[in-house]
Amino acid sequence: MTTGSLTDQLATIAGESALSTWTEPSSARELPLLTPPDEESCVRALQLATENQLALIPIGLGGKTSQTRAAKRADFALSMRGVAGVEAYEPGDGTVTVRAGTTMSELQAVVNAGGHRLTPDVPLPDRSTIGGVIAAGQSGFDRLRFGPIRNHVLGLRVLLGDGTGALTGGRLVKNVTGYDLQRLYAGSRGSLCLIVEASLRLFPLPESELVFTGQTPSLELAMESLRRAGELPLTWDTLSIAGQSGCYRVLAALSGRDAMLSSHRSNVDACIAELDSLQTFEGELARTARDSARDAELTGGWPHLRLLCRPSELSRQSELIFSALRELSESPPRIQVHPRIATLDLWLSEPDATRRSEQLIELFEVAATHSLHIEWLGSQRALAQELAASDTTTPALRLMTKLQSSLDPAGVFARGRFLGGL
Ligand SMILES: Cc1cc2nc3c(=O)[nH]c(=O)nc-3n(C[C@H](O)[C@H](O)[C@H](O)COP(=O)(O)OP(=O)(O)OC[C@H]3O[C@@H](n4cnc5c(N)ncnc54)[C@H](O)[C@@H]3O)c2cc1C
Q: Measuring CA to CA, which of 91, 246, 334, 364 is 20 to 30 A from 396?
């Protein structure tokens, strides 16, 4: 350390008012939190870290950090929330350049007013920054139509560990020369660089929206209804099932030209006709129905487990997980299924954290036996250690380690939070 305590040093960068504390969820470790008001202060914070061999955790608002493993070592956290605002919005081109700390709802309000739609449609947009969403490589409730955010990042401005600025891509749609580094940074979870600004591709606001909902006690019927709907010649925004044994809620969301939606309405009705409590929402009501289903994904926090597979394998693999769970617990899990994307999220109903961890470990063993790909989304420390061993088998881990050492040789971005101890 140069002179003075770390908090004194951080306060010199951006004043006392930019300093607070933050608790890393996965370690319960309390760290000084610097929220720089501008990019220049971010550069100085990175230089301070490099000069004093400190490690920092970059965050937006910290929403996803409860899902991240504990850093091996961390001296402070740096939130980008203060570096916010739209830099340039070009409605004619359908592009926007925005600073990393802008929340998704702030950005959405700007582009909606200009006739554009922002993707991904993430849960709790007022508690998610665009930098955090890009760094987490998130997709949203509209993932069936648009996929993950990395598909729509045209360019990024980032700071490397020593504070050096780097630009990749640009502000225009046709602009890629050289390595497409923004695709590497998107999803790197703050392990390679600090994202300070992003240029994104936007989409026209749809003329109309339709949301179809229904319920059924049968998961098979829910899946079959959405399979039929998915086969219609339509580009769906969302096809999802949420619920627990005895009551599954089905939601199918469409957007686009008025005439196109009207012409397909009866075909969709026919696909879901066997469900109970059928309702169809249009316009503003459709948006409200879709937003509340999106945010309801979070009731009870993050899912404990996610199964990923091919769409054709989803029923068989889900049943393997369900039958293993029936052996472990009398109360069924709450689930969220996106059948066309082939993800199954599970919230275990076991209230005791230790027993829940035991169940999760057993489920990982079942998954290994049947070659299922499941991901653990929680942050319990004991479980993290138990499962970390499987990370070392990650293909290309050696290459990723070399990449990290090249981009951040001093280890300024706290290590151990990403897979394989990266
Ligand atoms: C209580 C709660 C529950 C949630 N549950 C879900 C859920 O179940 N499913 C879901 O899809 N979403 C969920 N979200 C939303 C999701 O957490 C956010 O969309 C996402 O975390 C981005 O928010 P953030 O800006 O706070 O990023 P953070 O959570 O702070 O960061 C996300 C990752 O990106 C890194 N990072 C952040 N900013 C930068 C940057 N500028 N440069 C480099 N790296 C950076 C961090 O180190 C971290 O690895 C939840 C949010 C909350 C508050």
A: 364
Report the nearest-CA residue for atom 28 of ligand 1: 62
Q: Which atom of ligand 1 is nearest to the CA of 303?
A: 8
Q: Is 10 near ligand 1, meaning CB less than 6 Å away?
A: no
**Alpha helix stretches (DSSP H) within 231-272:** 258-271
Q: What is the pTM of this model?
A: 0.92
Q: How far is the CA of 106 from the centre of ligand 1 (A)?
A: 16
In the chain, what are the domains? 1-205+381-422 (3.30.465.10), 208-296 (3.30.70.2190), 305-377 (3.30.70)
Taking CA atoms only, the protein residue closest to ligand 1 atom 49 is: 189
Tell me if 133 CB under 6 Å of ligand 1: yes
Nearest CA to ligand 1 atom 44: 190
- Indicate left, alpha or beta for 72 from its phi (over 0: left) and psi (-120 to 50: alpha): alpha
Q: Count the neighbouring beta carbons within 10 Å of the beta carbon of residue 342.
A: 17
Atom of ligand 1 nearest to the CA of 100: 41
Distance in angstroms (rounded) separating the CA atoms of residues 113 and 233? 30
**Which amino acid, 62?**
G
Distances (CA, A) of 167 to 54, 153, 182: 25, 13, 9
Nearest CA to ligand 1 atom 30: 62
Of 46, 64, 68, best ligand 1 pocket probe by most atoms within 8 Å of the beta carbon: 64
Q: Per residue of the chain (422 residues), give pLDDT as tens.
A: 555 699 999 999 999 999 999 999 888 899 999 999 999 999 999 999 999 999 999 999 998 777 778 899 999 999 999 999 999 999 999 999 999 999 999 999 999 999 999 999 999 999 999 999 999 999 999 999 999 999 999 999 999 999 999 999 887 766 667 788 999 999 999 999 999 999 999 999 999 999 999 999 999 999 999 999 999 999 999 999 999 988 999 999 999 999 999 999 999 999 999 999 999 999 999 999 999 999 886 766 778 889 999 999 999 999 999 999 999 988 899 999 999 999 999 999 888 888 888 898 899 899 999 999 988 776 555 566 566 655 555 678 889 999 999 999 999 999 988 877 78
